[in-house]
Design brief:
Two copies of one chain form a homodimer. Chain A has 237 residues and is an all-alpha fold. Helices cover 78% and strands 0% of the residues of chain A. Chain A binds a DNA duplex (18 and 18 nucleotides) through helix 1 and helix 3.
Chain lengths: 237, 237
DNA sequence: GTCTATAGTCGGATAGAC
DNA sequence: GTCTATCCGACTATAGAC
């Protein structure tokens, strides 16, 4: 017997099978948590609901995540991971890079508009993002430990990036409160389509947004962003 | 004994005392509900929490409102009443009136900006409105029966009013989806300061907004509204 | 109209068989 | 690792004294 082999290696197939099954259970619980925590909140979601939706059982929650709260944190963690993947796809560079590279105002506006358009696309097109939105909205008005996970390096980075671009676009200090507030207002326009969805649907008199509606939303947001960044001083018509 | 007198009139003082006390209990429960339902949701708020916060008792909820859900509906009803009072104070005329009176574009922008400023003031200055916001945000992402109360004649009226003003400002049809979406985007900017408050506070690195921050918010929103309404076509810097 | 005591239900977590 | 059966605590709603 080679000394390099572990003393009691499990048969690979059986071990893989077990690990695979365990991982499947974890995934199923997290997927159920994404749906249910968003709809009903932490307390409103019962272990039994999670067990049924995930086609597992109540004991699995404690076994894999320690508690229902542990599962919630894992759910938020999975959102954070997916956010990171989406952020990579935007090709969003480091805020510091933008601050360093002296971007022209026009270029900054273009980058900003593209970024907003990308976020708007996610917000109105992606069912996945809409599911997160409910959890994030809850964390905004009643932050738990999980807010830190969502904010640090993610929302923080978007906010910093937008502030840098606004700085370049209108010649303001990216670190100034004024600039940060501008970034917040502009991103608020986008988020409104996730957070106030029900109002929008009622105003439009529809049950769901059509592709045309979605295109209009993106076009309007782009126009608004460009208008706000190219015209920083109030002026009458 | 006059035949006009009821057979067994209660002594006025005692009757007033009872009615007063009953009304006080109802008020106290509704006030507790405003705070607690916003923070913890319907299910997350327990009868015991409501009884303790209102300095009444669990039985009073069932007695006065039929059930915890009944109290929730009463809480939303009280929000609706207060919204109406605030709407009156904005001096907001009927949307139809604006649609009828052919307002000049410049005048429409001014009225719109004042309206947004008024709403922004409520959103950032009024503790009361911030408490509503949490309940309304919940209703947006998970509407209950109560959403109807909030929407009909209230949010609906604001949305309609904004759409009419946008119509006058940029010469579009107030009933068109494009116009409604513009209204939604612009109001979203304002609402973002209520719904994404935690992000804003973190970005600014403060625990609460200073008076200067609030002034900045209102100034930025006014500038953005004016920019968006005076410049409907995208243009490079 | 108020409030204490309690009935009946359902919650999260666990023990122990498989 | 999974899952059934079960514990115990907390919940809502109610009954009945005041």
């Amino acid at each position: 017997m080679s000394s390099l082999s572990p003393p009691h290696p499990l048969p690979p197939l059986e071990r893989d099978g077990r690990e695979r099954r365990s991982e499947d259970t974890r995934r199923a619980l997290i997927a159920a948590g994404l749906d249910l925590f968003g709809d009903y909140g932490i307390k409103g979601t019962t272990s039994r609901m999670l067990a049924t939706a995930s086609r597992t059982n109540v004991a699995a929650i404690t076994y894999h995540f320690g508690s229902k709260e542990g599962l919630y944190l894992a759910v938020v963690g999975s959102i954070a991971e997916r956010m990171d993947q989406h952020l990579l796809k935007t090709g969003m560079p480091d805020p510091a890079a933008v601050a360093g590279a002296s971007l022209s105002a026009a270029a900054a506006v273009t980058v900003f508009a593209n970024l907003i358009d990308h976020l708007a696309g996610l917000m109105v097109d992606s069912e996945e993002v809409r599911i997160w939105a409910r959890i994030i909205v809850r964390e905004q008005s009643q932050p738990t430990l999980a807010f830190e996970t969502l904010y640090r390096g993610r929302m923080e980075r978007i906010q910093g990036m937008l502030a840098s671009l606004i700085g370049a676009a209108i010649g303001s200090d990216p670190a100034a409160a004024d600039t940060k507030i501008r970034a917040h207002a502009l991103i608020g326009q986008v988020l409104g389509f996730a957070t106030s969805r029900e109002s929008l649907l009622r105003a439009l008199g529809v049950k769901r947004l059509s592709p045309t509606h979605r295109e209009t939303i993106r076009r309007v947001l782009r126009q608004h962003v460009e208008a706000c960044l190219c015209r920083t001083r109030p002026a009458s018509a």
